Amino acid sequence: IIMRYYNMGFAPELFACEQIAGGWHINIVVMELLMEYCTAYSLAEKYHLSSRTLKQVKTLVEKMHDLGFVHEDLRLSNILVGPESSVKLVDFDWAGKIEEAIYPPLINHEISWHPEVKFGAESAGT
Where in this chain does the record put each Protein kinase domain (predicted)? Predict the structure, then answer.
């Protein structure tokens, strides 16, 4: 999923993705460092997100859904905004195919999740 999004220009370049030894079922991911980008979260704290930025995020989500995938952790801290309001998404560890991706059972319940999130259950399709 990350490589597909990178090839479309919507994610940082993926340099490495390796499973950590020891049966943890955890991957370590090394991606391009985008110094000129900041999180939508940090922008929204000080400024309003531009309509162009919001439209780009909507377009990215629609394209992902058209390809049959969901992000599953799409929130302001996982949206990077760069020069001229360009947008890239990060944190694809819960992404997967629509109707197959699930949320982990132990996620932070203090975060404001999409209203359709079912913790430890099937995806809400975000």
Answer: 1-126
